[in-house]
Amino acid sequence: MIYTVTLNPSIDYIVHVSAVQLGALNRMDRDIKLPGGKGINVSRVLNHIGQPSTALGFLGGFTGNFISDWLEKEGVHTQFVSIKGDTRINVKLKSDTETELNAQGPLIENAEVEQLMQQIDLLTAQDIVILSGNKPPSLPEDFYQNLIAKVISKQANFVIDTTGTELLNALVHKPLLVKPNHHELADLFGTTFESVEEVIPYGKKLIALGAKHALVSMAGDGALFFTGEKVYQATVPKGIVKNSVGAGDSMIAGFIGALVDTKDPLIAFKKSVATGSATAFSYDLATRSEIDALLEEVILTEITL
Q1: Residue 4: exposed, middle, or buried by beta-carbon count in 10 A (0-12, 13-18, 19+)?
Q2: Residue 153's pLDDT is what?
Q3: What pLDDT is attached to residue 164?
Q4: Which of 249, 261, 284, 292 is labelled catalytic?
Q5: Which end of the chain, N or C, is more open, meaning fewer C-beta atoms within 10 Å of its C-beta?
Q6: What pLDDT, on the 0 to 100 scale, is given for residue 283?
Q7: What is the DSSP string of 165-230?
Q8: Banded pLDDT at 80 (limits 50, 70, 90)
Q9: CA distance 82 to 197
Q10: 265-280 and 247-262 are packed helices; what angle lies between their axes, rounded to 10 degrees?
Q11: By the 8 A CB rule, do 3 and 127 touch?
């Protein structure tokens, strides 16, 4: 079974305004409310491509009910811990530029944390756990490390999609997949990139430090895939970008879903790029038909240096 863990879910309130004037009344052109949180996005896309998963994490209040009701209607299996606090609301303001207002998140009590840990105790070596996104400020700094220790004690595989120290500390535990974008990879190692070629040594470093596979997304320059000693680059399909939210999560869903089905990392890489692109070209997360329509446009090339 694939499990996703979202420690700090949200309602993503996406607002479109033609021109924003600070200090004045602004009228929305359109708006939409969606369940948010990186692990939740992964579970939704896995569901769209017919791959079962179970979404774990913390939900509370009327906002938590909105998310759980939405996922139930879509057919996503959930086992969220019910908390006393309210799940947060994030505002995504789309105008001539894109502005995000993200809430910090609710207080998570010790008893609620223990319920999540009890769920992790039920994992087996056949399971994959996808750990995505940030955590509420009330959880300790080493919370991801504690989660990972519990996961690997059950011999389950895990995917980590976070940044900075949390990502660096996870590598020694040999994650099945990591997926920084090129900006996050540069920040991780305190450098900058001027070309695709400059990214490659640092992607290889992710493998040397313990990751089994690494995906590095590079916007219009496609994506790089690192596995063992080999490096591959994928072209991205052509289309109009409507939405950047969830594209990276969709890549993870496409990769893990295809890897579970085929056991072939290159097929999984191709599927991941098509899935991320399909979400970028949509106002919500990619559907199966949208993904399938883009698959043939993704061309893989092995890079030899």
Answers
A1: buried
A2: 95
A3: 86
A4: 249
A5: C
A6: 80
A7: HHHHHHGGG--SEE--BHHHHHHHTT---SSHHHHHHHHHHHHHTT-SEEEEE-GGG-EEEEETTE
A8: very high
A9: 46
A10: 150
A11: yes
